[in-house]
Structure formats: C-alpha cells, structure tokens
C-alpha cells in the first residue's frame, strides 16, 4: 500500500485511513494504531504520512527477510558489510568475524554517524558532479547537433563549388566546341560548294558534248571539244586539289577527370569520432564504505 491510503494494522475494518508509517513493522497505520505502535514496550518509530510520501518507494519496500532463506535478518557481518539472517551465518558466514546483532550494528552506525556522514558526503559529491556532467552532456548534445549541421552544410558547399567549377568548365568547352565546329564547318562547306559546282559543270558538259556530237558541224564540234578539254582540265585540277587537301574535323580529348573520377575525387572529406576525457573539477576520490562495527 505505497500510497498509505488504508491502515494495514487494523483488525476491525480495512477502511481506516492511514496517517503514518511504522518503520519497524514496515506497514501503514492509522492514528489509533500509530499510538499503539509508539507505546509498545520497545516503542516503534512511526513516521508521519507527509514525511513518508517524500521518501523513495524502493526504500519503503526494503524487506526484513533474507532473500536466500526468507528468514528475518537479525545479524550484521562486519567482514562483508552485509545484513544477514541466522541461516546465512551458518551457511556462508560461519568463518566471518565479527558478526554483531543488527540492533547493535544499527545503534553503532546511527550513534557514531560515520556511515551516514560518509554516505551524505558521497551523495552530495556525486550529486553535484553528476549535475555538472549532465549539463556538460546537454551542451555536448547541442554541440554535436551544431557540428552535424555545420559539417553537412560544409559538404554541400564543397559539392556546390565542384558543380560551379564543372559548370564553368562545361561552358568553356561548349564555347570552344562551337568555335572549332564553325571553323571546320566553314572549311568543309567551301570545299563542298566547290565540288558541287564542279559536279554540276561536268554534268552539263556531258550533256553538251552528247548533243553536239550528233548535231553540230565538225569544226564547231572540234572547237567545242577543245574548249571543254580546257574547262575539264581546270575542273579536274580543282577536284584533285580538293582531294589532296586535309579535311578538318573536331575530336574530343577528355581530361583525366573522366577516367580517374573516383581517384581524383575520392570523397568530399571524411568524418571520424574523437573521444576524450572531460575532467570534472572537485571530483573526490571514491569513498570507502564505513563498517558499522
């Protein structure tokens, strides 16, 4: 009955509201029962409900019985600093010294206050330092998130720089390709037009010669042949000149970037986890548990 709403000691009814907790019996009690517990021959320690509600439930649930033998724990082994029962003494603590009664150990520990003072110091020290460490971890989480965002932004910036650089190189090579294309296109177009003109003239002269051969006089035919021979010689000379001339073309020679892409741009950087100690100012050395003997 962790909430202490009902008295666990009343024999009359189960509906009586508890107002306190008996630390000796480990039960919640009503006002009448608490008065009875306080007036026993060996008075029990009764704690008001307002106080007990502030205590951790785990401390209120501490059993008076041994976990191994389910017997009432009445002894304290100083050698092992452990609360035990009679069976524990016979089984696993038969050679231990000294073994005192739990009442004596508790009275000694409470009266001398050594164990409590030591525990209070440890709790204060650890609480202070754990709070400091907690604040450090919170700040570290903020720092980690900031680093993550900063590094991702940095990687994006590097990528954008590469893209901008590639775009610039692309624009430059496109311009160069256009210029080289226009240069070659002009040269080839001129020779093409010249060949077209030669071909057209030759075709015309073939028809002329064929017609004149059947219809004109011998003198006119002879004169025409001589004229066409001269023109054919000129045309043939032009064709041979074109045939012997170089024909320009454009050729792309990719940079090493294409063939060695993975090598030249292996990555955009690397990320690693660095671990280091964060000193805590004022962290005392571990306290040794004080024996209640």
From TrEMBL:
Family matches, as PROSITE patterns: ZF_BBOX
Molecular function as annotated in GO: zinc ion binding
Residue ranges annotated for the B box-type domain, each copy included: 2-49
Parts forming coiled coils: 109-172
Keyword Acetylation: no
Keyword tags: Coiled coil, Metal-binding, Zinc, Zinc-finger
Domain of life per record: Eukaryota
InterPro entries xref list: TRIM45/56/19-like, Znf_B-box
Transmembrane segments: none
PANTHER family documented for this protein: BONUS, ISOFORM C-RELATED, MEIOTIC P26, ISOFORM F
Name of this protein: B box-type domain-containing protein
